[in-house]
Amino acid sequence: MPVRAYLDLPSKLALVFLLWVCAFTLSWTFQVSLCLLLVIARFAIPAFRPLSPRSATAFSKFIVYSISVALLVVCLNALFIKTGGTIATVLGFSFYEDGLLFGLKTASRLILLSFSVLMFFISTPLPVLIGYLQEKGLPPSLVLVLLLTLHFLDQLPRRIHQIFLAQQARGAPVDAGVISRTKALLSILSPLVLASIVESIERGTALELRGFLSRPAADRIPAQIGKQDNLLGICFYFLSLAILLYSIYRWLIA
Questions:
Q1: How do the domains of the chain map onto residue ranges?
Q2: Which end of the chain, N or C, is surrounded by fewer C-beta atoms within 10 Å?
Q3: What is the pTM assigned to this prediction?
Q4: To 10 degrees, the CA torsion angle through 175, 178, 183, 189?
Q5: Based on C-alpha coordinates, what's the Rg of the chain?
């Protein structure tokens, strides 16, 4: 496993916490700048690069999807919140300043929150995350639930594709239009849910038989965290605290 994949796990968690604090305290201009920095970090910093080509493709698609959703949120708010000055009129529809600002705040906050979480998971190996949680004393039962949940989410696109191909081979009209796909949704969801439940039970039983729930802390997967990572994480936490205190001070004197 590459060293860059697990050296800075505490720093990544602290950075996610910092970005969440910024999403609820800073202005939308700073949040947009942070989103751009995250996109740059995905290509420039090895520790934040996706672990697989599938993760990289999913992140690129999410960027396009988030931009489309952000534009839709901004336009709808600018159209329906009819306060402030009129910015523009297109085909008889007027867009207002207050609605535009509110839409920008909402969209930038949602994108920053989602980007921070997505960047963390696409660049962090699951065994390393589980080992870190175990090292920090999280109950093994909760770690097991988290492990099975993340594995289910990771395998979800592949399962849906397999069920879709199976239904299509049987002659089901799963690609004949929106109405046909809606009717075939139940036939796709039912085997997906049942197969996921069966596999989760089997995988949980296998892990339990291997002593996952009763394994001593010394035998668990080492997180291999260095002092520099701990120091960087502490700096992120102190910066988060400073931003919170500044936001509270600004709110009190307003």
A1: 3-124+224-253, 132-219
A2: C
A3: 0.70
A4: 70
A5: 23
Match 């802390």 to its residue by tokens. Answer: 217
Torsion 117-119-124-126 (CA) sign: positive
